[in-house]
Specification:
This protein has 242 residues and is α/β, with parallel strands linked by helices. The protein has nine helices and nine strands. The radius of gyration is 18 Å and the shape is globular. The N and C termini lie close together (5 Å). The chain binds 2'-O-acetyl adenosine-5-diphosphoribose. 2'-O-acetyl adenosine-5-diphosphoribose (OAD) binds next to loops.
Length: 242
């Protein structure tokens, strides 16, 4: 039981924000670390609506390669631990991920929200339906719903609005604990969640390899590789539950 006034014992609702650092040890490049994706490619060339208009082949090829690559990767102990937390946590839990891979789901997590879209979806700009997509888009295949050749990657590009923001803010408002894992805190609105949480009196915890840009906003920061600090934290929070 422990101290009933202790903070961890009062935690019932949890919002977790994950970023590229949670998938790094699965062999998926992060964006801003040395050698990361945004060192290899200019954001303006591949990750904006303007880039897609200007040079669709380049953009489609870039995402086709990424889509193929993630299907060869496996969840790591950080994904496994979060899936275990999802299974065993009886309070509210929402894993808001900026990642467009499916490693949280493949590890078994259910309560996952992809705010930046998903590699394994194709979005039809003609009929607005999203279809599960594991192959390539470069050959301009027909949309399985409407037959138009109007599919694009279901990825939120720079300048576009992340998905399901209302749901995310509602979950943060109702949370007792906000945990940020493996994200540099460079991209808004996700980077601002910690401040939103804090202003609402929600306890905040950062788990990352190094201090993120907004690290000083967190009540506590634990540094280390996700594959070790995430399972440790999950063990701790499940053990602390009364
Ligand atoms: P970044 O590449 O900006 O940051 C990754 C973070 O993970 C850094 O703070 C690293 O220190 C940390 N990290 C690296 N390896 C780690 C490990 N093994 N364990 C724990 N942490 C580790 O990636 P994001 O913050 O996810 O958006 O980037 C946010 C968004 O920017 C992405 O969703 C993407 C990108 O542009 C879109 O594509 C819309």
């Amino acid at each position: 039981m422990g101290d009933m006034n202790g903070k961890s014992n009062g935690i019932r609702n949890i919002v977790i924000l994950t970023g590229a650092g949670v998938s790094a040890e699965s062999g998926i490049d992060t964006f801003r670390d040395g050698g990361g994706l945004w060192e290899q490619h200019r954001v303006e060339d591949v990750a904006t609506p303007e880039a897609f208009e200007r040079d669709p082949e380049l953009v489609l090829r870039f995402y086709d390669m990424r889509r193929e690559a993630i299907q060869t990767k496996e969840p790591n102990p950080a994904h496994d631990a979060l899936a275990r937390l999802d299974r065993e946590w009886s309070g509210e839990l929402l894993i808001v991920t900026q990642n467009v891979d499916d490693l949280h789901e493949r590890a078994g997590a259910r309560r996952v929200l992809h705010m930046h879209g998903e590699h394994l979806n194709a979005w039809c700009t003609a009929c607005d339906v999203r279809s599960r997509w594991t192959g390539t888009l470069i050959e301009r295949p027909a949309c399985p719903e409407c037959g138009e050749a109007a599919l694009r990657p279901d990825i939120v590009w720079f300048g576009e609005m992340p998905y399901r923001m209302d749901e995310i803010f509602t979950a943060i408002r109702e949370a007792d604990l906000f945990v940020s894992i493996g994200t540099s805190g460079a991209v808004y609105p996700a980077a601002g969640f910690v401040r939103d949480a804090k202003s609402l009196g929600v306890e905040t915890l950062e788990l990352n390899l190094e201090r993120s840009q907004g690290s000083h906003w967190f009540d506590e920061t634990r540094l280390g590789p996700a594959s070790s600090i995430v399972p440790d934290w999950v063990e701790e929070i499940l053990g602390n539950r009364d």
